[in-house]
Amino acid sequence: MSSNDSPPQQGGRSRRSELKQAYKEKPPPMGVFAVRNLASGKVLVGSSLNLPGALNRIRFELTTGIHRLYPALQEDWARHGADHFSFETLDVLAPPEEPGVDPKEELRVLEALWLERLRPYGEAGYNAAPPG
Q: What confidence tier does 70 reach under pLDDT thresholds 50, 70, 90?
């Protein structure tokens, strides 16, 4: 029997299954993100219960030209190209310690703090200005 014909190791297979299961059970990181136009300095600030998913979705939508929420961002993406944008995690919200606690309100507060700090409105960004 050659080394390529060796039987699969049960320990390795079960360990891999355990790791996959642990990954599936672990909630994705949630928090506040920024999409920065490096050419103009404009920024989009947002939040998500799934940061990697949100950033991947935005990048995909911009790349395919189907980003509808922020038309000015889509126009700048088409004008400057992907190399002139960065996708950043600004803040990560720790998962709630108690089961059944909804983190959405805490996430809204965290996003509001970043909006206040960066003021991504008008010429400075892509977010809609707050009413008032």
A: very high
